[in-house]
Amino acid sequence: MSSNGRVGTDVAPGERPSERPSESTPYVELDRAAWADLAETRKSPLTAEEISKLRGLGDELDMDEIEQVYLPLSRLLSLYVEAAGRLHRNQEDFLRKPQPRTPFVIGLAGSVAVGKSTTARVLQQLLAHWPEHPSVALVTTDGFLLPNATLAERGILTRKGFPESYDRKALLRFVVDIKSGRDDVEAPTYSHLTYDVLPDEKVVIRTPDIVIVEGLNVLQPAQVRADGRTGLAVSDFFDFTVYVDAATTDIRRWYVERFLRLRETAFQDPASYFARYAALTADEAVAEAERIWDTINGLNLTQNVLPTRSRATLVLRKDKDHSVRYVRLRKL
């Protein structure tokens, strides 16, 4: 691939568009070096200590990744936000009626263990450094999972993370309220320690400039109702979408490696939902992690998450070491 980037068509899982012979494509694909050259500045506003705090378990996030990948992305997103502001003002002039500016909403999707939560946290911090939009909120869809008791009652506790395990009406209502310009919008919270929704705890989003909504299935299309009509999808209200991508074999390995780290850390807490895994031997832990991946997370990825990749505005494709190898952006 040349340093000026390549173009390609997203047509099949695991296939790079630049490998296709077709010259007609709705995407621009840039390798890491070409993408890094697009940054206005090469100096990260984040310190090494701040980057360390943003890094998720198992993610290999460093200063090079910030400066070469996420600084250009934050600049591109900032340009989109500025363009949306201009369009808002033009629409006000056209309607001859002042309208409140609603937050710019970014949807961020990807598999379990691919590093999407780290990406969301990094973008939140970087975008907040741009003076045009200092207030950036981050909401994960984990809080919109149905309570464990409800999942167990419906017989789908082992399908946690699948589309049917979420309170989709509540999630849609949340995004609609954000895009309606409501001053205060509440979102439920989730505990990764107890592996359940915290019913009495809410996070309040107060008139942010940007909202990042991160989750497995945020790019899912609208469902067809029983009467044959198609409803609204959460993604209908996104202004920009990002999909964090990697080879499925790599994501599976990262999941197992993360499971082993958790076995030595968070799982040691007696209050942890997964405390029972702390006593497993290393071999038993690997076998259990692989079983969970093959029967739950990997299945969800291939059936529900990966098919939404082509709906994203931008795809960050990771290499075996978690570093972003190339970026694919939909043309305007």
Please tell me about this protein's structure.
This protein starts with 5 loop residues before the first strand and ends with a strand. By secondary structure, it is α/β, with parallel strands linked by helices. It contains eight helices and ten strands. The strands form two sheets. An eight-stranded mixed β-sheet has the order 1-2-10-9-8-3-7-4. Helix 3 packs across helix 4. The chain has one domain (6-330): Rossmann fold (3-Layer(aba) Sandwich). The protein is globular. The protein has helices spanning 32-36, 48-54, 63-95, 116-128, 148-154, 168-179, 248-264, 282-305, and strands at 6-8, 27-31, 104-110, 136-140, 184-191, 196-206, 210-214, 240-245, 314-318, 324-330.
